[in-house]
């Protein structure tokens, strides 16, 4: 397994964990795992492009790095922007509201969007194909 494939595997596991936690109505950890899935997906793309791993949880910074290779990453800016706070939001008691089912379900959709987007970009780069998904 190549390095970027290992990152993608963990990104997929985070997304599956989020889906399982949704069924248990554990909404705070759902949002966290969704952010983690998106983060690892973006890092997989950077590793695929031979870019060094940036030690950050900031999805905006990671998308901007990916955009240096492919401006198409603008297409997932909204999803990553929405997921970005979940590396800490809802993990600790603060002034933030507790997420509900709708928040968690939306986060899963956004994480799925990022993962599929990155998978498609990697496959397109590897095989020169367009619109595989």
Keywords summarizing the entry:
single chain; 133 residues; mainly alpha; Four Helix Bundle (Hemerythrin (Met), subunit A); 5 helices; 0% strand; globular
CATH architecture: Up-down Bundle
Q: State the shape.
A: globular
Contiguous runs where pLDDT drops below 50 for at least 5 residues = none
- Put simply, the count of helices is 5
Using the CA coordinates, give the radius of gyration.
14 Å
Q: Work out the helicity level.
A: 55-70%
Structural class: mainly alpha
Q: How would a textbook summarize the main sheet?
A: none
Question: Could you explain the architecture of this structure?
Answer:
By secondary structure, this protein is an all-alpha fold. It has one domain (3-127): Four Helix Bundle (Hemerythrin (Met), subunit A) (Up-down Bundle), CATH 1.20.120. It contains five helices and no strands. The radius of gyration is 14 Å and the shape is globular. The mean pLDDT is 92.
Summarize, please.
The protein contains five helices and no strands.
Topology summary:
Layout: H1 3-23, H2 27-48, H3 59-67, H4 77-83, H5 101-127
Helix pairs in contact: 1-2, 1-5, 2-3, 2-5, 4-5
């Amino acid at each position: 397994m190549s390095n970027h494939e290992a990152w993608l595997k963990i990104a997929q596991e985070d997304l599956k964990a989020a889906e399982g936690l949704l069924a248990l109505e554990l909404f705070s950890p759902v949002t966290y795992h969704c952010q983690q899935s998106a983060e690892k997906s973006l890092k997989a793309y950077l590793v695929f492009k031979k870019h060094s791993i940036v030690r950050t949880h900031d999805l905006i910074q990671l998308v901007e790095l990916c955009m240096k290779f492919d401006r198409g990453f603008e297409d997932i800016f909204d999803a990553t922007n929405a997921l970005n706070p979940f590396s800490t939001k809802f993990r600790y008691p603060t002034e933030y509201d507790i997420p509900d089912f709708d928040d968690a379900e939306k986060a899963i959709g956004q994480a799925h969007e990022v993962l599929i987007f990155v998978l498609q970009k990697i496959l397109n780069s590897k095989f020169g194909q367009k619109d595989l998904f």
